[in-house]
Structure formats: structure tokens, C-alpha cells
Here is the input.
Amino acid sequence: MNRFLAIDIGNTRLKWAMYDAPRRGAALLAQGAEFLEQIEQLADGPWSRLPAPGCMLGCAVASEITRRRVHEQIDQMLGWDFAPQWVVPSAREAGVTNGYDQPLRLGADRWVAMIGARQRILQRGGPRPLIVVMVGTAVTVDALDAEGRFLGGLILPGHGIMLRALETGTAGLHVPTGQVTPFPTNTSDALTSGGTYAIAGAVERMYQHLYLHCRMEPACIMAGGAGWKMVPSMTRPFELVDNLVFEGLVALAEQRFAPPGA
Here is the structure.
């Protein structure tokens, strides 16, 4: 069986998932996550209980050193005989056209997430404009038209970076995390509400840009480890997806690894 291993390396964690085949609709056999500091535990830990995959595709925003650490863990696995492959953004793949001025400079996680989101929209009906929001250490808000062309996107700091920047640059703001409220009346709530509404405002602005450009209501898909924090504060309908990068990796793996006619 040509089992497929998908790996998503972010700024703080490595997430992995194993499927019974490199194709959309494949059964999820196992999944897990480790902080980057604990990558060396994979071979003797959660991966030791896995059946051998036949292929692997990964998405990494971390350094080349981190990828080499993953390769070392794969090399320790008996019976794992495949060449690790990592996504590099291209001009076009899996139905998405890359509109970045320099396509290779686009973050691999953004590229894979857009592919996953586009596939999700197409599976549910006709094509439509799409906003893809990734809420993590950084926040990205990317726009695709109904034909799958990536028009461009925003990058802004995530909640943690915003708070640390204010604490570093402003005296007297070392305060606990607060609550999101319409009218904050203490510094903790003011900081937390400000960061949350900044992200929600960026999504709303991109929504307006995309609606004016396409003359069609966009769909919005949100993902990322901190996406849940945005749920109560969004002004437009959206769908929160847990493993959007994995969905994109599976769609790419289907093109790269699945045998013809599978």
C-alpha cells in the first residue's frame, strides 16, 4: 500500500499526518504534533508505531536546519524507503495560479493552504472568489479569484507578536492577557481586543477589495493554530478548518504520487 506521510513545519510546531494513499478522500490513519524542540523524539516516539509510508510531502516555513533534523528522524526508521519531498511554490499547480511578483518568494504554507482551500470550495459546488486566512505566529490574508488566481495578500503580526511588541516598546504594558470586548475598560482587555480587531479588520478590508474586483461574494476559510481566537470577532461568514495545510498537501500528492487512473 502506498501510504502517504504529510508534514507541516510551522514556526513553533511540526504537525504530521499519515493517509492510506496519496489522494483526496484517503483515510487518515494517524496524526500528531511536536514542538520544534522535540523533533528528535519522533523516531523513537509516535513514528515508531506507524506503518511504513511509501511517499512523503512536506511544507516548511522553518529553517533548512529544521528540515535536516526531520530527514535524520526519517533515516532512523526501519523500512522507510522514500526520498522526502518539500513543496516549493511554483507558477501554477493543482488549479491555483501564483500571482506573486516572485512566485518562489511566496511562503510555502500560504501556497499549500490556498491549494487546500481552493479544492475544498470546488468540492462543494461552483468556483467562487476565496479569502484564505492563516492565524498563527504571523497572520496572512490571501485572495483568490473565481478562476483560482492568487491576486495577492496581507501579512500582519499574530496576537503574540503584537503584544510582545507593545510590551517591548511601551513602558508599563506588562499585563496579563485580557478578553475581547466591544468597549475595553482595562489595559489587558484593550490590548487583546486591539490585536483581535486588527486581524478582523484586515480580513474585512480584503473581503471588500475582492468583492469589488470580482463582483461576487467571496467565501472565507480560516485556519492556523490561533484561528479559534477569531471566531467571535469576525464580521463576515467564514469556515474554520483544522488541517487546511494537510488538505493542500494531499491535493498536491495526488498529482505527484498517485498512479494513473487511481
Q: What stands out?
A: The chain has five helices and twelve strands. Residues 156 and 198 are 9 Å apart (CA to CA). The helical segments are 64-75, 108-123, 159-169, 187-214, 244-256.
